[in-house]
Specification:
The complex is a heterodimer of chains A (156) and B (236). Chain A is α/β, with parallel strands linked by helices. Chain A is 24% helix and 24% strand. Chain A contains 4 helices and 7 strands. Chain A starts with 8 loop residues before the first helix and ends with a strand. Chain B is an all-alpha fold and 236 residues long. Chain B has one domain: Ferritin (Up-down Bundle). Chain B contains 11 helices and no strands. The chains are: A alpha/beta (156), B mainly alpha (236). Chains A and B meet through loops of A and helix 2 and helix 6 of B.
Amino acid sequence: MVTLKAPTIDQIWDWLEEVPDPEIPVISVVDLGVIRDVLVDGSSVEVIITPTYTGCPAMSVISFDIEKALAKKGVTELTLKTKIAPPWTTDWLSEKGRARLEEFGIAPPLKSGSPERCPQCKSSSVELVSQFGSTPCKAQWRCRDCFEPFDYFKCI
Amino acid sequence: MLVLGHRTSEWCGVAPALEEDIALANIALDLIGQAKLWLEYAGEVEDAERTANTLAFRRDFYDFRNLLMLELPNEDYARTIIRHFLFDAFQVPWLEALAASSDETISSIGQKTVKEANYHLERSQDTVVALGDGTEESNTRMQKALHDLWPYAGEMFQDDEIDRMMQGESIAPLPSSMKKAWELRVERVFNDAFLILPDSDFSHSGGRQGIRHTEHLGHMLASMQFLQRAYPGASW
C-alpha cells in the first residue's frame, strides 16, 4: 500500500514561511507573528492564528492564502482556528521581518511609539503626520531631512 | 460599538481633511471588528442560532441595546470628536476591567480590544485639545458639541439589573464604579482645551436596556441593514 508521508510540524512552518502578508508582501505571515501554533496529527493539520487588529480586512485573505498554500503541498485536512488571547503584539514581528519592512520603506515598530529613523535616508529627524495610515497597522510620518513621507508600523 | 462604528464610517469620503478621513475609517473598522467579537460571543451565550451577522443586521431598533449618545447623527465634526473622547475615556478603563473578567472569553476580548481603545483615546484626547485650543470658531463649535452631548454622557455610568448580576459573578464591574476616574480625566482634558464643562447632572437613559431610542437609530439601521433586509442571508 502506498501512503503519502504525513507532514512534519517543521515542514508546515517552512511552508507557512512562503505565505506573504497580503498588504505587505515582503514579509511572511510567520514574520508578522500571526501564526501562534501548528499541530499535526497524522495527516490532519491544525493552524492557530491570531488577528492583528480586530477589524483588519486582511485577516480573511490571510486565512484563505494559508489554506491555498497548504493545499498545494498536499495538506487536505486543515483546520484553521482563531485565538485572540494573548493578544497579538508587534513584539511578535520577527527580526527578519523588521529588517525587511525597513528595506521596503516601512519603519518597523518601536516601544517608544515613534520610528527610530526615516527608512529612506536614515535621518532621525522625523515627524508625525497622522496616527492612522493606509492600513490599520500603520501610521503616517514624514522625514524632516529628505521630506519623504513614509509609513510607520504602529506599536501595539 | 456597532452603532458608533457605523456612525464613524459615515465620515468615510466626506471628513474635513484626508488624514481625518483615513483616521476615522480606521477607527470605524476597529469598532466594527470589536463589535463582531462581542456579538459572536453574545450569539454563543444566547445559544439560539443567532450569529454576529444576524444580531447586527436582522434586529430592529427596539431590540438594540446601545448608549443613546452613540446613535445620534454626526452633524458637526466637533460633535464626532467630543463623542469619541467621552466614549474612549470610558472604554479604556472599562475594557481594562473586562480583561480581568472571570469569564475567559470576555477577558480575552477585553485584552485584545483595550489596546485599540487606548490608541483611539490618545487621538481623540489630542484632537479635543487641538480644536478646543484652536481658533475662535473651533472652540465655539467644540463648546456647543460638548453642551449638546453632555446630557447623554451619564448613561455610561448607570447600573442596571444585568450589571449587578455580572458584578456578582465577577464578570464585569459596575459601570458606576468607573465614573470618578472618568470625571477626573475629562475635567483635566477639557481644562487643557479651554472648554467649560456644563454644570448639569441630568442624564438621558434607557438606550442600554432598549426602553427607548432616539428617532435617529431607525434611520441609521435602514441604511446599515439595507442589504440583509433586501436579500436575507446574502453572503459573498
